[in-house]
Amino acid sequence: MAAAKDQTGSTWSGGNINNAIRQQVRKAKKSQRNWKPDEAKQLDAIIHGTLPANAARLVGKLSPTGSGLMSALQLGAGFLHAPAAIATAATGFGAKTLGDRLTKNAVKKLKDIAAAGGDASLLIPADNAFQRLTKAKQDAIRRALMLGPNNQDNQPAER
Fold it and tell me: Which of 73, 121, 141, 156 is deepest in the core (most CB within 10 A)?
């Protein structure tokens, strides 16, 4: 992540952090060959992206940040069709922000997998006490909670 920030900072295009992260992860994958299977799978998910991350990245190209050409086009279009230009810029900016966040979250997941010894299954939380109950017991608890203390079955008969 630090190398990606340095890379975008040195080119004065901090808007391209997504590409820089993917490039740095690709370098890391090549430099070390003994990745465990779950780590290698997560590395590929970062490098190639997931469907949501890539879709956000594609729509994010409409963002006025990170691209002088898009800024100029939207500024020019703004004189003719201000609402459309603003909507396009806002959509692009939101998608770009989402795409960047999804890639950063994928890197965090890689760190978590590595910290778990390379086993992604260790990141899945254990069931809580309610989830360990049988379905019948879960249903009984749900009914009790839904009916509450004023349910008709537990009311004393009127005098």
Answer: 73
Does residue 153 form part of some domain? no
Q: Domains in the chain: how many in total?
A: 1
134 within a domain of the structure (yes/no):
no
* Domain, as residue range, for 28: 2-128
Flag whether 151 is in a domain. Answer: no
Q: Which residue's entry shows tokens 């997931």?
A: 50
Which residues, 6 or more positions from 53, have their beta carbon under 8 angstroms from its beta carbon?
A: 99, 102, 103, 106
Q: What pTM was estimated for this model as a whole? A: 0.66
Q: Are 109 and 42 in contact (CB under 8 A)?
A: yes
Whole-angstrom Cα distance, residue 155 to residue 67?
A: 69
Encode pLDDT of 98-123 as tens digits. 999 999 999 999 999 999 999 999 88
DSSP per-residue codes, 28-91: HHHH-----HHHHHHHHHHHH--HHHHHHHHHGGG-STT-HHHHHHHHHHHHH-HHHHHHHHHH
Query: Taking every pair of C-alpha atoms in the chain, what is the biggest distance, in angstroms?
Result: 85
